[in-house]
Amino acid sequence: MKKRLFSLLLALVLMISLALPAFAAREEITVYNWGQYISDGTDGSLDVIAAFEEETGIHVNYITFDSNESMYTKLKTGGASYDVIIPSDYMIGKLIEEDMLEPLDFSNIPNYAGIDEAFRNQAYDPENAYSVPYTWGTVGLIYNRQYVSDEDAQSWSCLWNSKYAGKILMFDNPRDAFAIAESILGYSLNTTDENELRQCADLLAQQKPVLQAYVMDQIFDKMQRGEAWVAPYYAGDYLTMVEENPDLGFSHPKEGFNIFIDAMCIPKGCQNKAGAEAFINFLCRPDISAANLDYIGYSTPISAAKEYMDEEVITNPVSYPDDETLARSESFSALPIDATQTMNDLWLSVKTAGANTTLYLIATLAAVALVIVFFILKNACRRRKIARRCRKWKST
Asked: In b/e form, how buried is each residue of 319-357, taking b as 16+ CB within 10 angstroms?
């Protein structure tokens, strides 16, 4: 009996020892990307992550963010490790400047050869050492044609129009919000002039009374369901939203707008650099890029991918504006630290404007109420004292 038990235990130990190396060898990467920014297999689309996992055997942990600033904060404060991140151009410049990215080994990314020349040697990564373009796109106005006129929607001033008060959404991040004010005032989207930034903040503060909310990813539900009528957002997301609500329209405002490139990078502290580069290479394959961007609506930096895409997509002026429209666009650059801090401080003052006044009014009303209560109680005590004196007088 003891021999049999010993044999069973020995077999169990052997099975565990054989299984452990296989378990330990399981490769994985963690990808940190924008919300709703990869084809996920719904509506008959390609499930990009599942296809990558099946082809490579590398498991993908997929996490999302809703703004460059929130992504930057997460990286800066630590506490989490990512292998691939997909920030926008100006944020990539900032990450490079602060030594937060790993140089890429392009021998592991041969599909980089298919990236169009127009998307290489950009100011944010002039040596193409740290990033590989994922998509490009523009920012514009999304509006509900049932309630907002096409004429009004040709200008950013639509977001200040009292006709649409309570139905207007605004970006919930400083860089995009200030860019709209800068466009209206005729300033560069990369201004560092403190006086110009303050004027932009004043303009944004004037907008608050007509706003419904500051939003990012929440825009999808609010615009699709008609809870809001007009909002600034990204062209690619509009193409997703209009499928759910055909009443939605899109414009590139006459004052100018932001054009951006989002690119794949590997942050310092990654756990699987080779796996990360394999993922980047996979997304650069023309057929994968086509299937991915066909679904998410953004524009591809790989001309060869267009051969796999629907003609309707690649001729859509929202995704691929003409040269005349693009002439009104401007890319973001990484701002100096002092200008970034000024913008952030001003943005905080914009968002909290009125809060101090409200607190003051509440405190004032509370103080008045306390004074009233005090005099009521004092008067009641006085009446009780008089009553006691009267009773005492009557008893004598």
From this structure: bbbeeeeeebbebbbbbeeebbebbeebbeebbeeeeee
Judging by DSSP bridges, how do beta strands 211-215 and 168-171 pair with one another? parallel
Residues 364-378: pLDDT tens digits?
A: 345 445 545 455 555
CA angle centred on 250, ends 248 and 256, rounded to 5°: 155
pLDDT of residue 378: 52
What kind and span of H or E run contains 141? Answer: strand 132-144
Q: What is the pLDDT of residue 3?
A: 44
- Which residue ranges of the chain lie beneath pLDDT 50? 1-6, 8-13, 16-24, 356-365, 367-368, 371, 373, 381, 385-396
State residue 282's pLDDT score.
98
Closest CA relative to residue 178, chosen from 373, 316, 339 = 339
Confidence (pLDDT) at 361: 41
Instruction: Write phi, then psi, for 50 (nearest 5 degrees).
Output: -60, -40
Q: What is the Cα–Cα distance from 107 to 110, expressed in whole angstroms?
A: 6
Answer yes or no: are the C-beta atoms of 150 and 169 closer than 8 Å. Answer: no
**Residue 158 Cα to chain centre, angstroms:** 22
Q: Is the distance from CB of 265 to CB of 129 less than 8 angstroms? A: no
Identify the pLDDT of residue 390: 40
Considering the entire predicted model, what is its pTM?
A: 0.80
Q: What's the pLDDT at 216?
A: 93
Identity at 202, one-letter amino acid code: D
Angle of helix 337-352 relative to helix 174-185, nearest 10 degrees? 90
293/152 Cα distance (integer angstroms): 30
| Dist CA 182 CA 140 (whole Å) | 14
Q: What local confidence, expressed as pLDDT, does residue 23 receive? A: 41
Query: What is the reported pLDDT for 15?
Result: 52
Quote the pLDDT of residue 58. Answer: 98
The Cα–Cα gap between 89 and 131 comes to 9
Tokens of residue 268, six digits: 């310092």
Name 278's bridge partners: none
What span, in angstroms and rounded, lies between the C-alpha atoms of 180 and 252?
12
Residue 40 to residue 7: CA distance in whole angstroms? 48
Orientation of helix 174-185 relative to helix 68-77, angle to 10°: 140
Q: Determine which helix (DSSP H) or strand (DSSP E) holds 245, and give its type and residue range.
A: none
Q: Are 155 and 258 in contact (CB under 8 A)?
A: no
The terminus-to-terminus CA distance of the chain in angstroms comes to: 108
